[in-house]
Amino acid sequence: MSSAPAVLERFFVYNPRFGPKEDNEEQKILYHYPRTASLDEQMSHVGLSEAMTRFTETFTSDYPCESLHTKHSRYTYLQPEEGYWMVMMMRNPRVSSTSGDGKLVVVSREDELSDPVLRGVIEELYGAFRLFNGDMERIVQTSSVETLRRRLDLFYSNMLRLYEARSFSLVDTFAGVRFFPVDRTTYLSIQSFCNLLLETFPWISNLTFMYETAVIYSALDQKTLRTLFQFLRRASNPKGSLCAVTSPILVDHGDDSQDTNALSPFASLHLQSEGSFFAYGPAAGSESTTLPSIHIEDKVYDLVIYEQDGVRVAFTVDPRHWDGESHADLQRVAAFAEPEVKALQRLLVHLRPKADSGAKDSGFKFFYFNQCNLALKDTLSDKGVPRSVMRDVESLYERIHSMKEDVRELTVHTASDPWVVARKVRYYEWWAAPTCDTAT
């Protein structure tokens, strides 16, 4: 017996407005993954999705089509902007075995994937594109449909490499932010560093201080912080550091220029000195700097991320500040930040065992989410939790969110033996599953 995990089979973006007639209907396709698919294949899948969304509109226009289940695949639909549709097609996990007469039998496990989880993933994919490129309709209005196609291709052809179906979990549904717990003295020291950095370099804004993959301080609004955190979570290696292998993002810096294949700073790490570097910033010894842009509300900023010994300092700069030259300014930031960050890192590294011990000693695998500040704590999706338990948790998520009461609670003895307890009180959710040693 052998098994094959769920995989991302197709991902495409289309808008029927751009191909309303039969002789130009291929123009409605804005992006399609995989690139190797023939135009006939692309048209077939886009046509099916368009038919499904239009069919459901005959019943209600308030609730557009969100998913489609088939024997072998699951489709997730999202209309993030008027007329623009994003579709993610996942192939269900499969189990292959040999029957008594020697024939190969392949069984598709249709219940392995979760609609809320997949919806969280596709919303995250759109949010990342919008953060680095802006609204799709605005790109069309200010430039052209071809520019939108190019930006979608540059972004998603590389972004999708960061997404493995086996890593999808309930965490993707909430898109929360992990915060690193620190004591008051350490937090004040970090805040003092941030204030001093802003005072020394007043052209810096929207400062965010992280340790490994958790946030300690941020001046970003919640929506932007959530999107940026999710992107950095995907683009980080297991130790929490950004690297060229795991963050191969391309950025289009010219609407109509031909030079659109050049790697942006997302594709390489630029060493400043031993142990410190700009993940997205100037290369050591280079006299030029190309920075990715991010869109916060109606403004466009340059994004810079400085890393050192697990500490990550992200900030934005108004592009008008540079006046064509950013390298020297950012080198001064690095020279200022390096000794300060080293001192803070020594404080944080001693807090890491204390931060981990609470979850390990509790005897529970748990999940906590605070909708007010997006705080997320999670050990339930860690390795070692059986997939059958996670599948039961994902099923219970749909049940508890369908309830109308302010206080909702479910306690379930799963088929695989563990108990699962879920409690939702207005903006707060808590899920727990006892470990084998504590279960009774």
The SSE string, one letter per element, is EEEHEEEEEHHHHHEEHEEEEEHEEHEEE
Strand content: 25-35%
Q: List the total number of helices.
A: 9
Terminal CA distance reads 33 Å
State the share of residues found in helices, binned by percent.
25-40%
**Largest sheet entry:** 7 strands, antiparallel
Q: What's the number of extended β-strand segments? A: 20
Class of secondary structure makeup:
alpha+beta
Low-pLDDT segments: 243-274
Over all CA atoms, what is the radius of gyration? 24 Å
3D shape: globular
Kindly state the mean pLDDT as a whole number?
A: 80
Task: Walk me through the structure.
It is globular and about 70 Å long. Strand 14 (299-308) and strand 15 form a beta hairpin. It contains 9 helices and 20 strands. The strands form 4 sheets. Strands 9, 10, 11, 12, 13, 14 and 15 form a 7-stranded antiparallel β-sheet that branches. Helix 3 (136-142) runs antiparallel to helix 4 (145-159) and helix 6 (184-200) runs antiparallel to helix 8 (327-361). The model is unreliable at 243-274 (pLDDT under 50). With 440 residues, the protein is an alpha+beta fold. 33% of the residues lie in helices and 28% in strands.
Structure described in brief:
The protein is of the alpha+beta class.
What are the main properties of this structure?
440 residues; alpha+beta; seven-stranded antiparallel sheet; five-stranded antiparallel sheet; 9 helices; 33% helix
Task: Itemize the secondary structure elements and their pairings.
Blueprint: E1 2-4, E2 7-14, E3 29-33, H1 39-57, E4 67-69, E5 73-81, E6 84-91, E7 94-98, E8 104-108, H2 115-133, H3 136-142, H4 145-159, H5 170-174, H6 184-200, E9 204-211, E10 214-218, H7 222-234, E11 270-273, E12 276-280, E13 293-296, E14 299-308, E15 311-317, H8 327-361, E16 364-370, E17 375-378, H9 387-402, E18 407-413, E19 419-425, E20 428-434
Helix pairs in contact: 2-7, 3-4, 6-8
